[in-house]
Design a protein that fits this description.
Length: about 270
C-alpha cells in the first residue's frame, strides 16, 4: 500500500488541475438545457480543455484492466445512470437529472470533479431532493478530512447521513487517491465504520464522490462496457470533489467561480 504524499510544488499542480476541471463544469452549465445532446456537451468540454486550457481530457481512451477504452472526454450520467455514462446523440429533456464528471490532466496532474444538473430546472421534488442530499452527503464526508482522521470516518459520515434520509449508497465504486495517476491508492469508500481504515496524513490528495440511489443500492452494467445503472431503475445522483489533507484539515481543490453554494452546515472550503 503506497499512498503518495504531495509536496508544495505538487500541490500547486493539483490546485491548477482542480480549478480547470471545475471551470469546465462552469462552461457547460448554461448549455445543460432541454434539447442539447450529451455528445454536444462532450464536444464543448473537449474543445475547451484542449484548445483553451492546454490540458488533456483524462477519460478519452482511458482503459483500466478489464475495460475497453473509454470513447469520450467526459462522463454524462442521466437519471437512473449511476456513473460512467457515455455521451450520445439523445437530447436531454426537461426534468432529467444529469451528472457531468470532468477529469483534466494539466502539467501531468489530475483534477476530478462532478456536479448534478437539473435540466430545465423543473425536475420532480424527489429528483431535486436526491441531488441536494447527495451534495450534502459529499460535504459531510469532506468535513471529516484532517490529519489523524480515518478513511472510515469519511465513509461513515456519508452513509449515516444518506441512509437516515432513506437513500442507499452504491458500494461497487468509490473515491480514490489522485495525482499524477488518475486512480491511485487509497480507495475512499462511501460507507464504513468510524475509527477504521487508513489514517489521513497532510499531503494526501483523494476524491470523495458518493453515488446515492433513491431506491435500492444494486447496480448493473448496461452492456457497453462502461455505463452503470441502478438495477431497479431508480434515480441516482453523484457529486465529486478532489480534496487535499492540510496540516489542520482539508482544502477542496476543485473549486471555481461557478461552484455551487456550500450547504448551510459548511463554513469553509479550506481549513
Ligand atoms: N471521473 C471518474 C471518477 O470520478 C472516472 C471516469 S473513468 C471514465 O473517478 F473513463 F469513464 F471516464
Ligand atoms: Co473520481
Ligand atoms: Co470523476
Amino acid at each position: 500500500m503506497t499512498i503518495t504524499l504531495k509536496s508544495q510544488a505538487d500541490i500547486d499542480g493539483m490546485r491548477l488541475a482542480g480549478r480547470l476541471a471545475s471551470e469546465v463544469l462552469d462552461l457547460l452549465a448554461p448549455h445543460v438545457q432541454p434539447g442539447i445532446t450529451t455528445d454536444a456537451l462532450d464536444r464543448l468540454a473537449h474543445d475547451h480543455i484542449v484548445q483553451v486550457q492546454g490540458a488533456i481530457p483524462a477519460p478519452l481512451n482511458y482503459c483500466p484492466p478489464g475495460y475497453v477504452p473509454y470513447p469520450k472526454s467526459i462522463c454524462t450520467s442521466v437519471n437512473h445512470v449511476v456513473c460512467h455514462g457515455i455521451p450520445n446523440d439523445k437530447p436531454l429533456k426537461k426534468g432529467d437529472i444529469v451528472n457531468i464528471d470532468i477529469t483534466v490532466i494539466k502539467d501531468g496532474w489530475h483534477g476530478d470533479t462532478s456536479r448534478m444538473f437539473v435540466v430545465g430546472d423543473e425536475a420532480s421534488i424527489q429528483a431535486k431532493r436526491l441531488c441536494r442530499l447527495t451534495y450534502e452527503a459529499m460535504w459531510h464526508g469532506i468535513l471529516q478530512v484532517k490529519p489523524g482522521a480515518r478513511l472510515g470516518d469519511i465513509g461513515s459520515a456519508i452513509q449515516v447521513f444518506a441512509e437516515a434520509q432513506g437513500c442507499s449508497i452504491v458500494r461497487e465504486f468509490c473515491g480514490h487517491g489522485i495525482g499524477q495517476v488518475f486512480h491511485e491508492e487509497p480507495q475512499v469508500l462511501h460507507y464504513g465504520k468510524p475509527g477504521t481504515g487508513v489514517t489521513l496524513q497532510a499531503g494526501m490528495t483523494f476524491t470523495i464522490e458518493p453515488m446515492i440511489n433513491a431506491g435500492r443500492r444494486d447496480i448493473k452494467e448496461a452492456g457497453d462496457g462502461w455505463t452503470i445503472v441502478t438495477r431497479d431503475r431508480s434515480l441516482s445522483a453523484q457529486w465529486e470533489h478532489t480534496v487535499l489533507v492540510t496540516p489542520t484539515g482539508y482544502e477542496v481543490l476543485t473549486l471555481s467561480a461557478g461552484s455551487p453554494a456550500l450547504p448551510d452546515f459548511v463554513t469553509t472550503t479550506a481549513c
